[in-house]
Structure formats: structure tokens, C-alpha cells
């Protein structure tokens, strides 16, 4: 508190504080501050060395950062976590914490397009070799390993064809090389990769962990030692998150189990519904018996198959355009996923537009492929809206 005898200038410049109180707030506070005041050089040294719990500069750490990263780490059964300003920021920090020029990465051929783009940039700009393999064939992973391999990267449920990685077999194939699993689609409510031997788990926290389409955030979890290194690089490269986004994500996390249960149940029923609709040649959902990784999904995803699915339209890109217009604002076209509302996206023009058409074809991403992110609406509403739009296209 400022002194009552201070000047107006001092009162305004130093104001905004309140007396200490003993009652605990029912909701966590937002520590929206650039820096933290320090008592003196001895406290600076104590906090910097870790002997005293505290914070110095928000780029290096903040209570809201730590709260969100800690909760995700606990959910994933990891020791610690690092939160960044976006999913790509978290992925960048994780990669830089493991590889340098001359090292080698083995990566799944089916990855989020921007992840592949980042890996290709590491190759051309920094001399990090990358080998892409079919993650559904663990023997390919085993054969791709080199003495210089420092990391293996896969998605728990792939984007956008929903392949489910056989994590125990992949961990065995990778041997001593740490496996980094992008588990954005699954979340820890459906799958915990560390329990199957993975060393690192990554999330685009803008998606399910937050769940409301209003946060740009990423998080990676792993061992204390690894996360200490990753956090240092996140600060050095300036990909740190801000306190308010972390606070929002922590708020979203409180309803994660309920939301994942709901979207998993709805998506399963919608996948069955879409299989019966004219103009659709194939539906991609791991809960369907004809999906290539259905048996793996049944084994690794006992609590549900997630809220994501995709389907192919016979009319290609023109049919997709017509469908999106017919859906209008009921199920909007949005280049993201895992909002509270259901959305559609076009992988060939959004998440995977940075790779060639030939590469997309090898991944099963056709010009008629639509990705559907199931939200919290009722199943009846979604069937009605999708059915009417598909009939107008057909």
C-alpha cells in the first residue's frame, strides 16, 4: 500500500495493491506481471539457485505457467512440464532440447503438417537429418535407427486419418532413443503415453486441454532433467506463454474428463451415421471395425476413441466447398479443432497444405477429405445438420 502522504504521482504509479488477507480465493489468481520484486541480492541468488521458491521474470517462469504445466504433467504421469506460447513453440523447445547439427530424428510419416515443416526446416537450416517412416510398421522404426538418432516422434492418434500408434511396440523398436508422442487428439483422459514407455508427451493445449477455442498454447511433459533443459530453451528463444492464457487453460482443464467422455460418445455415433450417408466413400474413425488400427485402438483406448473423425467425399474439392457452404454457421469451417462447438476443416488446404499433393496422396489425404471435430452439441442436432448438408451436396 502507498503512504497517504505520498504525491498523486506516487499514489498512481505505485497503486493497485491491497492489504494482505487470510482467506483463500476460490479460484486461482492471475499473476499478470512482467517481473517480481526482489528483496535484495541475497534473495536474487537464493531464487536463481533454486534454494528459495520464487520467480524473477515471467519469461523464465510464472505461477500460472507452473500451475498449468504441473497439472498436465500429473495427468500424464510425468515428473514435470514446460508450457509455451503455442503448440509449435512447445515442439520447437522440445526438439532443440534434444538435437543439434549432425543428429538424426525418426518421425512418423503421418504428422501434423506444420510439425513436418519444422522438421524439414531443421534439416535444411541446421543439418539435422530426418527419416520419415510408417509408424504403423514398428519394424520401419527399428530399421531407421542410427547411432546419431536422438529422438523418435509419432502421434498417438494421427492427424487427419486417425491412425492409432502401437506405443508399446514403437517404444521397443526405438530402443534407447526417447519417444516423443503428440497426444493432442487423445489427451491423458484416453491415453497416457508415458505409461506405455514414451519419454515425452506433447499437446497443442489450444485444443482439448483448453477446450474453448480462445487460447493459443502448447505444453510438453517429461522428466525433471529434460524439462529443465526444455524450459531454459523456451525462455532463450522467447516462446514462453503469458499468464492469462495459462490461467484460461487451467480453467478449461477442469472440465476435460467430462468433455472427452461426451465427444468420444458422440463421435462414435456420428462415424456410424456418416458411413450410411450417400456421397461418402470412407469414414476415418478408430472406433469403426474397418479402420486399419481398430484393434490397436481397442487395446490402448479403453475409455473412448476421441472426438475426431474424417470422411472422404466422392465429389472432391467442389463437393467439400458445397458442403461447407451448406453447413453455414451451424458447423463452421475453422482451421483448428477441439472447440466446444463442432467444426469442419479441410486438411489439404490447412494443416497439410505445406506438403506436396503427391505427399498428401501417400498419406491418404485426398482433395475430398473433410476433418470433423465433434463438439458438445447433442447427437440429434449434429445428425440433422450434417444430414441436411450432405443431401444438398448429393
Tell me the span between the first and last alpha carbons: 69 Å
The portion of residues forming beta strands comes to 5-15%
Q: Determine Rg (CA atoms, Å).
A: 23 Å
* Sequence of secondary-structure elements: HHHEHEHEHEHEHEEHHHEHEHEHEH
Top-tier CATH class of the largest domain: Alpha Beta
Give the helix/strand class: alpha/beta
The description of the largest β-sheet is: 7 strands, mixed
Helicity range: 25-40%
Number of helices: 15
Overall structural domain count: 2
Low confidence ranges: none
Q: CATH architecture of the largest domain, please? A: 3-Layer(aba) Sandwich
Multimerization state? single chain
- Integer average pLDDT: 94
Q: Would you kindly provide a written description of the structure presented here, covering whatever features stand out?
A:
The chain has 394 residues and is α/β, with parallel strands linked by helices. It folds into two domains: 41-253, 3-Layer(aba) Sandwich (Aspartate Aminotransferase, domain 2), CATH 3.40.640; 256-393, Aspartate Aminotransferase, domain 1 (Alpha-Beta Complex). The protein is built from 15 helices and eleven strands. The strands form two sheets. It has a seven-stranded mixed β-sheet, sandwiched between helices. Strands 8-9-11-10 form a four-stranded antiparallel β-sheet. The model has no long low-confidence stretch (mean pLDDT 94).
